[in-house]
Design brief:
- 48% of the residues lie in helices and 0% in strands.
- It has 66 residues and is mainly α.
Amino acid sequence: MRKKRVCCDCGKALKKDEVALSRKLIDVDTEEFYCISCLAEFIGCTIQDLREKIQEFKEQGCTLFL
């Protein structure tokens, strides 16, 4: 059974794309994951920017987003 991941900042349960995005933008081996809104604040961009990046990474075939 897969371990439920929560945002290290706000404690919200995370979706698989949020976990993948944290790994892609922070470090593939990170154990600290962010929800999309906390990650946007952490790196200084908008939530929409991150949603667009998720779509780009999926279109590029990034295996973190399978």
